Amino acid sequence: MLSLFQKVIGLLVPCIMGVLLVPYSSSNAADVTAVEPAYSAGESLSPGLKVWYYSRDLSRLRELRDWMKWKDGKEGPPLLSLDYPETTGPVLTATQEDLVGARIEGAILLSEVGQYRFKVLSNDGIQVDIGGKKVLKDDRTHSTRFSKEGTVTVNTPGWYSVYILYFERRHSAALQLHWTTPSINSMHVVPPEVFGH
Ligand SMILES: [Ca+2]
Predict the structure, then answer these.
(1) CATH no. for 26-196
(2) Tens digits of residue pLDDT in 45-77
(3) How far is the CA of 21 from the centre of ligand 1 (A)?
(4) pLDDT digit string (tens) for 118-136?
């Protein structure tokens, strides 16, 4: 007959092994092909990306999506770039320093045929969709860190849709999108002139 101690150990060990063998990662990335530009490459758009803010204590992207069903965001000044290094000050173009959700929409000019690699520095959670496809995701609250790399392969140059969900809970905030292009193979911050809406 098993003692209570043996039964508890028998239950705990598989649980602990399961946690050790399947480490949870909230960061993932995808390789996608962008096929349908929203606008042709020669189109002239207004600079930057549009943004709507949600004042809310969030710790998951899912919570932001749920909240967006009930509340309209408050539109803020456009983001002229996605170059926001770590700060404890106001989040993006919002006035608040904490408890901010953001929905960012617009387009990015992918003017060359070939593969672009992307990664995003974020604090806290973020998901970046390009051309209607999820490319980068680093969910949950976390310190400032890079996501895994995702790629977008372009067959038809043009302006592709950008859709980003982001939140900053407390303390530091950061959102900085980096890429390589088919002609520049070193990671650098995406330049402001390729964002439009
Ligand atoms: Ca934070």
Answers:
(1) 2.60.120.1560
(2) 999 999 999 999 999 999 999 999 999 999 999
(3) 29
(4) 999 999 999 999 999 999 9
Of the candidates 153, 156, 160, the one whose C-alpha atom is nearest the C-alpha of residue 180 is 153
Ligand 1 centroid–CA 126 distance in Å is: 12
- For the entire predicted model, the pTM comes to 0.87
Q: CA-CA distance, 151 to 130, in Å (whole number)?
A: 10
Q: What is the DSSP string of 102-144?
A: EEEEEEEEE-SSEEEEEEEEEES-EEEEETTEEEEEE-SS-SS
Q: At 5, is the pLDDT very low, low, confident or very high (cuts 50, 70, 90)?
A: low
Distance 171 CA to ligand 1 centre (A): 5
Which of 170, 101, 163 is CA-nearest to residue 130? 163
The vertex-29 CA angle with 166 and 104, nearest 5°, equals 25
Tell me the CA–centroid distance for residue 144 and ligand 1, in Å: 8
For ligand 1, the distance from its centroid to the CA atom of residue 46, given in whole angstroms, is: 30
In one-letter notation, the amino acid at residue 179 is: W
Encoding tokens for residue 122? 């974020």
Report d(CA 24, CA 10) in Å as an integer: 23
Strand partners, 175: 84, 122
Ligand 1 center–CA 139 separation, angstroms = 12
**Distance in Å, CA 143 to ligand 1 centroid:** 6
